[in-house]
Amino acid sequence: MNEIILEKCPFCKFVVAAPYSGVLEGYQVDCPYCGKYIINPTAYADLCSRAITNRQIANISCYLHENQKLSITTDNIYNLLKIKTPSFHERADKLLLALEKITEYAGQYFEQQLEWYSSGWCSCGIELDETIAYLIRTGRIAEASPGTRKYKIDADGWAHLEELKKVNADKLQGFVAMWFDDSMMKIYDEAISKGILNAGYNPHLVINREHNGKIDDEIIAQIRQSRFLLADFTGHRGGVYYEAGFAQGLGIEVIWTCNKNAIEDLHFDIRQYNCIVWANEDLNEFKRRITSRIEASIGRGSYQQQE
User: Fold this and answer.
1) Where are the beta strands (DSSP E) in 10-58?
2) Is-contact 67 245, C-beta < 8 A?
3) For the sheet containing 27-31, what is the strand order?
4) What 3-state class would DSSP assign to 263?
5) Neighbours of 282 (CB within 10 A)
């Protein structure tokens, strides 16, 4: 394959911060809209051959912005293309949450920035203006004066942020994202499901549920209905990375786990998280650590398994 020097982001076509040629993992991109990620040469060629809509481009860019340093391969290109657009109210909440992250003190104003397109999952300036107008009408943000494009979080905005942080607080389901290999079902039965049950939550594995729709839609629906998601990266399946990122984007707590023999190959974009490393020869310890991590992260649930 001839060397390719990326001067523009292959998704949104913005000029990248600096041109990058290939590295071991792929082509590095630092885009002012999508953020930092790596795309391997095969995935890059696959992407260039596809016809992608403006909405798909916006959704992918916004997802990459939320999940920095993602490694894009042919395994997850398909999942990226199928990302669903959040509802208008969800997008407005995402923009408000982004403003909270950069606010150092109540009353601090910020000029409108390019990153707000990504934070609010907006595909164009009209959409961003409409989102900002909604947040102003609902009292969640205020403009310094008309036309200045300088905004702060208002009193109702701070109150709404507190409510947003109680994501699915009344839910007792723990979604499990893992490799559906026969060798892993013993791990699920003896450690993962029992660890979740011992913490007072109901473990949910999609393959254990009858459904008539597409499994992708079922996964998304069940993640939205869960108090937390346990992601086990043994086998390094692209779907597990995608589902963990999707849950994070919704503000749902993620419990990270991986077998000790697979930990060295864990994608660099999630190595920053405190992962429970487990061994096949000590599943009781794995089960105990799952229970402890859940209780420490979100508190004990009240689910009781039916006999």
Assistant:
1) 15-20, 27-31, 35-39
2) yes
3) 27-31, 35-39, 70-72
4) helix
5) 13
Answer whether 297's CB lies under 8 Å from 254's CB: no
Q: Is residue 33 within 8 Å of residue 114, measured between CB atoms?
A: yes
Residue type, position 111, single letter: E
Buried b (16+ CB within 10 A) or exposed e, 231-256: bbbbbebbbbbbbbbbbbbbebbbbb
Q: Which residue shows structure tokens 């060798």?
A: 183
Q: Which residues are CB-contacts of 42 (< 8 A; sequence separation ≥ 6)?
A: 73, 74
Place of tokens 């001839």: 2
0.70 exceeded by the pTM?
no
Between CA 181 and CA 121 the distance in angstroms is 35
Q: Which amino acid is at 70?
A: L
pLDDT in tens, 27-66: 788 888 888 888 888 888 888 888 888 899 889 888 888 7
As a whole number of angstroms, the distance between CA 262 and CA 241 comes to 14
3-state secondary structure of 125: helix
